[in-house]
Specification:
Helices cover about 30% and strands about 15% of the residues. By secondary structure, it is of the alpha/beta class.
Length: about 350
């Protein structure tokens, strides 16, 4: 006798997109464009395709820069040029063939951009900003204050901010051309959209400082202009800044209501990343309370944060704390996490036919 249908494996509709279950892959920076062109390649096809074969419903890409200077590192993926579209289309096609949906996370790293990747095996002294003469750049920030030991950014002008909005709009149009199913705006972790949102980092005395939400809301409007009406728009927020005087869950819940009114379909709820040296106490599901607070405002939300076990993910959705669970490190360890979870929760799973021997 099979177990009853789990909450985690019920479909979810976002506009015209129906997700086959509530399990997704969280956006994770990969720093894998070795030629620094921003073009993804065969590695990315395999990387993202494996999660779709493993049963995840939604794959969200790594932070994908809308301008060259918006990259986190020189190795980041991009959508700032039409030349990036065919390469992304190959990734999208691979995910679709395996039955999953894919969203691109569009980002501008702001003052946290232009850093060394800091991957295992990189020289120990390559942990801060890449010098301009070594392929780095002068970063753009809300107020001109630096992030930790990174190089100080320039304070972006009014005109440059408009260029950022235009960059997001154009990148969203390219995402549509590449066949993505959804777009996510990265307004978390201290990157540029988040830097403008928080009173800790936005100390401007112009209109962008008087209304700290203005840049994000303008960006939402801009990308919606070029997205089909049935295509979902997601926004990732740091629900709590984890910084004294910063935004907390109640602020983000209120913002989520304004985002819904502008056409945002799901809020991807993370936390922190705004200031150097913030204190965390990570534990399984440590960011779920923030997602629950935003969901209580009426928003559809995704929860993240060391969610590793199927029973835990099931409880989060079943108990109404979130609508979707996004996994990162757990998916890297086991790309077939969703298949295993369905077997554990329901006693049977929808299996990729060519893998049937593994599940006898």
């Amino acid at each position: 006798m099979t177990a009853p249908r789990s909450a985690l494996f019920r479909p979810l509709r976002l506009r015209d997109l129906e997700l086959r279950n509530r399990v997704g892959v969280s956006p994770m920076c990969m720093y894998a464009c070795e030629d620094r062109s921003g073009r993804v390649h065969a590695w990315h096809v395999v990387h993202y395709g494996q999660f779709a074969l493993g049963g995840a419903a939604l794959v969200v890409t790594e932070a994908t820069a809308v301008l060259a200077e918006g990259r986190v590192t020189p190795r980041d993926a991009g959508l700032w040029d039409d030349a990036h579209v065919p390469a992304w289309r190959a990734v999208v096609d691979a995910v679709h063939r395996a039955g999953a949906a894919i969203a691109v996370q569009l980002a501008h790293a702001g003052r946290k951009g232009g850093k060394h990747a800091g991957l295992p095996g990189d020289p120990a002294d390559e942990r801060g900003s890449v010098p301009p003469d070594a392929g780095g750049w002068v970063t753009a920030g809300a107020s001109g204050a630096g992030f930790g030991h990174y190089a100080a950014p320039r304070r972006v002008s009014d005109g440059e901010i408009e260029e950022v909005v235009d960059g997001f709009r154009a990148a969203a149009g390219r995402a549509v051309a590449a066949g993505f199913d959804a777009v996510e705006l990265h307004a978390a972790h201290g990157y540029l959209l988040h830097e403008f949102l928080s009173p800790v980092t936005n100390t401007r005395d112009d209109r962008w400082g008087a209304d700290r939400e203005l840049l994000l809301l303008r960006t939402v409007d801009a990308v919606r202009e070029v997205m089909p009406a049935g295509m979902p728009l997601l926004v990732r927020l740091s629900v709590d800044d984890v910084a004294e005087g910063g935004l907390v869950a109640a602020d983000s819940a209120a913002l989520a209501g304004r985002l819904r009114a502008r056409g945002v379909d799901l809020v991807d709820c993370s936390s922190g990343g705004l200031v150097w040296g913030a204190e965390y106490d990570p534990s399984p599901g440590y960011q779920v309370p923030g997602a629950a607070a935003v969901r209580a405002s009426g928003a559809t939300v995704a929860a993240v944060g060391l969610i590793c076990e199927p029973a835990h993910a099931e409880a989060i959705v079943r108990d109404g704390l979130a609508d979707v669970v996004l996994l990162g490190r757990a998916m890297l360890r086991d790309p077939h996490w969703a298949r295993r979870a369905q077997l554990e929760l329901e006693g049977a799973a929808t299996i990729e036919p060519r893998y049937h021997r593994a599940y006898r």
